[in-house]
Amino acid sequence: MCHGIVLGDDGQKMSKSRRNYPDVNEVFDTYGSDAMRWLLMASPVLRGGNLIVTEQGIREAVRQAILPLWNSWYFFALYANAEAYQAARSVSSEHVLDRYILAKTRAAVTEIETLLDAYNVGAACQALRDHLEVLTNWYIRRSRTRFWAGEPAALDTLWTVLETVTRAAAPLLPLTTEAIWRGLTGGASVHLQDWPDVSGWPHEPELTGAMDLVRIVCSTALGLRKAHQLRVRLPLASLTIAHPAARSLAPFTGLIADEVNVKAVELSAEPASLGRFELAVNPRVLGPRLGAQVQQVIRAVKAGSWTRSGQQGDRIEAAGVELEPGEYELKLAAADPDSTSALPGNTGLIALDLRVTPELASEGTARDVVRIVQQARRDAGLAVSDRIRLEIGADGAVADAVRAHAGFIAAETLAVGLEVRPAAEVGGDPHPVALSTTSAAVTVALARVPA
User: Fold this and answer.
1) How many CA atoms lie within 13 A of 30 on its CB side?
2) Dihedral angle sign, alpha carbons of residues 149, 151, 154, 156
């Protein structure tokens, strides 16, 4: 066993005489002791590296682990209380997102247990952090409408996952998990509980593999949108996915279309349909094995005279020589780099249709209006289930967009009545909305409808 050196915020060894570290009492009062504990356990210092203790690092610990777990608990409590629903343990839901998060939780708890048994605390922290990312930024976010509707299967699944994850995370975040677990169960203490037994939970490698690929595709597509400054609320015509496992995504094309905000998703099992594979050899690695023959291989590769075979496409041959891992690098080059992006690991390509038609721009404006109304609901202190009467003040293209998508806006904002009037006739602060080539403003007035 070895460890590195704990350094102060000036890069020198932490020392009482230098006072080169954040005040401990202020850290505990501001961020809590779990934040400092997480910073130390997740740091390189447990693997022989050095750790610089800074307030920024402590804030990052809160962002990475404590807030995702706490926000998940807060989200559950908000919607369970809104429905006056008493959730119960259940791992039997048939909904695909429930099955996915249950299978991922089983895998995460098993991995954390294995890592803690081996005293690999830093890796256990990483496993928990990765799972909280799946829970908050995928499962909960993609299930919001189900929670909004008070769907029992969703509430039971989230309760089950949170109760189990807090027990697994208790050695890493003892105070945070104590508060959450007691809130979930009313029990005495999470630290009096046994380690969670997930052996009977769903184990669906095909589903988790496909959904993990869905998440990768969506993340890459959203990155492509961001690179072209196309806001997510603006719908696009289509997304094309070229990947050897594209067929496994067929059941999830609707989910992908909704996440990326496109009208259609096209699948291809041939990555070369959107680009080509480019091969580069590493002479320094290849030379000692092949000697003078390495020049023949280099010339063949430059001329494009090489082949790719094998079940995973990992058998590369050039000039009659089969290349070994580490002797080459295989990359996917997009045919249209402007609208196409490679998936991580060069396993496939995705392409977005970047053309924005007037119809798509109108729908995007309507979605911007929904965001403004939702913020107005929050500012007015309305409950998530409150119905409203809505007046929208807008002119020109914005007013046309609101009228064209009035049903969508009303459904998304729980408006039982929607009236569009000139902007000057509806009081309130103007809010900017995007048009295809410029921007305009709307004003919003709403009133709660008594139950």
Assistant:
1) 12
2) positive
Instruction: Name the strands in the sheet holding 340-342, side by side, starting at the edge strand that comes first in the sequence.
Output: 262-268, 236-242, 349-352, 340-342
* 3-class secondary structure, 160: helix
Range scoring the smallest mean pLDDT among 123-127, 316-320, 434-438: 434-438
| Neighbouring C-beta atoms of residue 393, cutoff 10 Å | 23
Nearest C-alpha neighbor of 39 from the set 19, 54, 21, 22: 54
406, 418 in Cβ contact below 8 A? yes
In 3-state terms the chain splits into helix, strand, coil percentages (rounded to 5) of 55, 15, 30
Residue found under tokens 């259940």 = 90
Confidence of residue 303 (pLDDT cuts 50, 70, 90): confident
User: Is residue 266 exposed (0-12), middle (13-18) or buried (19+ Cβ within 10 Å)?
Assistant: middle
One-letter amino acid at 167 equals: R
Q: What's this model's pTM, rounded to 2 decimal places?
A: 0.81
Q: How far apart, in whole angstroms, are the C-alpha atoms of residue 164 and residue 144?
A: 21
Instruction: Report the C-alpha gap between 268 and 63 in whole angstroms.
Output: 38
What's the rounded Cα separation, in Å, for the pair 82 and 148? 9
Residue 162 host element (H or E): helix 152-169
